[in-house]
Amino acid sequence: MVMTLRWLTSVAFAISFCVSATASVTHAQVAVQGETIYTMAGPAIQNGVVLVRDGQIEQVGPAAEVEIPDGYRVVSAAVVTPGLVDAHSVVGLAGYLNQEDDQDMLDRAAPIQPELRALDAYDASERLVEWVRGFGVTTLHTGHGPGALVSGQTMVVKTVGRTVDDAVVVPTAMVAATLGPSALGQNGDSPGSRGAMVALLRAELVKTQDYVERQSRDGGTGAGPARDLRLDTLGRVLAREIPLLVTAHRARDIMTAIRLAAEFEFDLVLDGAAEAYLLVDEIKAAGIPVIIHPTMYRATGETENLSFETAATLHAAGIPVALQSGYEAYVPRTRIVLFEAAVAAAHGLSFEDALATVTISAAEILGVDARVGSLEPGKDADLALFDGDPFEYASHCIGVLVNGVVVSEEAR
Amino acid sequence: MRIVRSLLALVIGIAITSPPRVLAQTVPQAFVGAHLIPITGPDVADGVLIVRDGRISAVGPTSSTPIPDDAERHDATGLTIMPGLVDTHSHIGNPEGGDRSAAFHASVRVLDSVNVRDARFQKAQAGGITTVNIMPGSGHLLSGQTVYAKLRDGKTLEELMLYREDGQVAGGMKMANGTNPRRQPPFPGTRAKAAALVREQFLAALDYRRRTLQADDASEQPARDLQMEGLLEVLDGTRVVHHHTHRHDDILTVLRLADEFGFRTVLHHVSDAWAVAEEIAEAGVASSLVFVDSPGGKLEAKDSTFLSGAALERAGATVGFHTDDGITDSRFFLRQAGLAVRAGMTRAGALYGLTMAGAGMLELEDRIGSLDVGKDADFIVLSGDPLSVYTKVLETWVDGSNVFDRSTPADRLYAVGGYGASHDQGVFQELEWEAR
């Protein structure tokens, strides 16, 4: 038993995990050497260096051109990439034990609840946050999940911090909606059909238009409508401050989302979209980005027609595409975007295009590309280090930096 | 009624007019120039595989392996050939075990429920799987009899099933402990109750046999009891127990009960194998693993890790893998070995786990699992290293017949997905029940 334990702690990834990785290393200056550095802001750099100072990227370039100043901690890897951006997850809200009291990604009491903030439900110490970070994920778009017509808000966090306030990047990123059978009411509750579902949503959006209109007429007199958290949030969607993230898999549900976006003139981000390859022209014409389902997602029910090649098909058409870990009701409790991008790379996307789906393209769709998604001076120093091709099963993520701090050095 | 009758006539018509199935071609097939991974011997960098009449007739280096003049030659230069994969635990075809009336269903056969038109069969072929153990779910202490099947193309399960030497359908018995079978009575409410119920069942089976043997004449024989017969097949060793178990203490409970009653068992899932690897090795019990991408999802899998393969290998225990399809998709079965190697398992051990180890768990090691002369011609042609994410299964052959060819549009649809790729899959009911 002692032998086993000693061996277990000596191998790549121990079952125990570091609760507070951020506290353990406080180097303000780090030099990351990479045999290959994929900056995602230009061609890959062979034998390069990324200088990190005070949480930000200071300089990126070939080793011959970047001098490592004294006092910098030097770490090295075969391959260096930007920290991975998971474009849609429920990690932090859907706890890993999957028991009733650790599931906060969905409240089905009402079909439309945009007022539910991810901020109020995110558990920064949830074990899966550390788990995905170990595989290079440094930014998560997480929050309320699919499964209700409008389930609540999402947010963008870094995979560090003791509290949600430490972790948060964007407190309200999008409002999550679902079109399709999974958003039907439970036990015969409304909405009971696709038509009823869309009528319900349109009625709520019309009500929001009216609420916004009456508010604007108020002019500070106090005679306007009483403040309504639900309509406030949908009002932000109609004002195009935040997009509506619509999970829709069937072609007809995707078309419904496009139809609603045109009618109410909100910014739409398509999510899941298993049959998106049937509607390439329509999605392209509407200028809609797609956060596609995990490549290895289960092909059953609404997603029965999914294809491993959808990311490649959409990308080839010029549609912005990101990948996600998605939502799982059972096991695995969460997927890992690194592995999903790997399978996309094996099915039609080039290596760098696949990497973009979990770095810069994801950051752009989430509106956080000024801070994350590529290795450029002035951006947050979020990096993932690998001992080989990051997509290969037998490679490992051997180091992770978030906000300039080395938060993981275990090989995973 | 008239529709039923005409349908019946149609079915009979088809049955009568169908030509007898040609199991394998008589012209030898020679695959030349491949990197061969025989599993039971060293790799051959530039090799030849020859199959005839559904079996492997020669394996060896191209330089020294004569190719018969009448052989149809397949240029396999730059490709890799290895034995067909053995999936020791799958739910393709929507197999159904027992219902909720009882915790034990030793008389229930999944073969009476499997839908061979489920597209998952084609997807499994596309994943390189050639032999599969089709299992009922784990929502019972004992949910029913499993069936071992070859992934031949067939319209009926009968065409796919394997048979024992005594002519009976080959299969094991599915059992489970831990949280899945834990429900209202007659299911157990605690782990100790679960073990007690299992012991009582086996004692009842032993008593049934005693009464049968002691009867002086037929009139004193106990009435024939299919449940007891199923349990006696387990106790007599003609049916291996495929045992769902996750937590370290549940694993040890399986070993304890197997030791008490002398039944043969294979541990399935074995999430905490890393914690009790030496005990598993000492018991001489094989483990079939499935890796999912994160721990949890259920309490008993809260400490699951990719480490278990390496831990068991190090302890000297036999390690195989399964898809648990739909928990993981059969098209990603090779990935299981890749993840095991990622966590420290040897490459040879992981490839053995996908093939020979699984064959042994189904007691088919004399027929399948390696590229050896005389074995069934079950093999796969790969575009490259079996453990690389970029590698594609190009062809799958079962009993010397090609059942999957990625270069054809129909087969490619199953391999990569797309519109219509999931016909007749239905919903995965077992998974839904377990998840509740």
The CATH architecture of the largest domain in chain A = Alpha-Beta Barrel
- What's the CATH topology label of the largest domain in chain B? TIM Barrel
Count of beta strands of chain A: 16
Helix content of chain A: 25-40%
CATH superfamily of the largest domain in chain B, by name, is Metal-dependent hydrolases
The largest β sheet of chain B comes out as: 8 strands, mixed
Which pair of chains has the greatest number of interface residues, and how are they split between the two chains? A-B, 52 and 51 residues
How many helices of chain A in DSSP terms? 12
The ordered H/E elements of chain B are HEEEEEEHEEEEHHEHEHEHEHHHEEEHH
Question: Which terms summarize this structure?
Answer:
heterodimer, A: 412 residues, alpha/beta, Urease, subunit C, domain 1, TIM Barrel, 2 domains, 9-stranded mixed sheet, 7-stranded mixed sheet, 26% helix, globular, disordered N terminus, B: 436 residues, 8-stranded mixed sheet, 6-stranded mixed sheet, 12 helices, 17 strands, 20% strand
Task: Describe what this molecule looks like in 3D.
The complex is a heterodimer of chains A (412) and B (436). Chain A is an alpha/beta fold and 412 residues long. Chain A has 2 domains: 13-83 and 377-408, Urease, subunit C, domain 1; 84-366, Alpha-Beta Barrel (TIM Barrel), CATH 3.20.20.140. Chain A is 26% helix and 23% strand. Chain A has helices at residues 2-10, 21-24, 127-133, 164-167, 194-218, 229-238, 251-264, 280-286, 310-316, 337-345, 351-356, 360-366, and strands at 29-37, 45-53, 56-62, 73-82, 84-89, 137-143, 150-158, 168-170, 175-178, 244-248, 268-272, 290-292, 321-323, 383-386, 397-402, 405-408. In chain A, the strands form 2 sheets. In chain A, strands 5, 6, 7, 8, 9, 10, 11, 12 and 13 form a 9-stranded mixed sheet that branches. Chain A has a 7-stranded mixed sheet with strand order 3-2-1-4-14-15-16. In chain A, helix 5 (194-218) crosses helix 6. Chain A starts with a helix and ends with a strand. Mean pLDDT of chain A is 93; it is low at 1-25. With 436 residues, chain B is an alpha/beta fold. Chain B has 2 domains: 22-83 and 369-414, Urease, subunit C, domain 1, CATH 2.30.40.10; 85-368, TIM Barrel. Chain B is built from 12 helices and 17 strands. Chain B has helices at 2-17, 120-126, 191-214, 226-235, 248-261, 277-283, 308-315, 333-342, 347-354, 356-361, 409-416, 429-435, and strands at residues 29-36, 44-52, 55-61, 72-75, 80-83, 85-90, 129-134, 142-145, 147-150, 173-176, 241-245, 265-269, 286-289, 319-321, 379-382, 393-398, 401-405. In chain B, the strands form 3 sheets. In chain B, strands 1, 2, 3, 4, 5, 15, 16 and 17 form an 8-stranded mixed sheet that branches. In chain B, helix 3 crosses helix 4 and helix 6 (277-283) crosses helix 7 (308-315). The model of chain B is unreliable at 1-24 (pLDDT under 50). Classes of the chains: A alpha/beta (412), B alpha/beta (436).
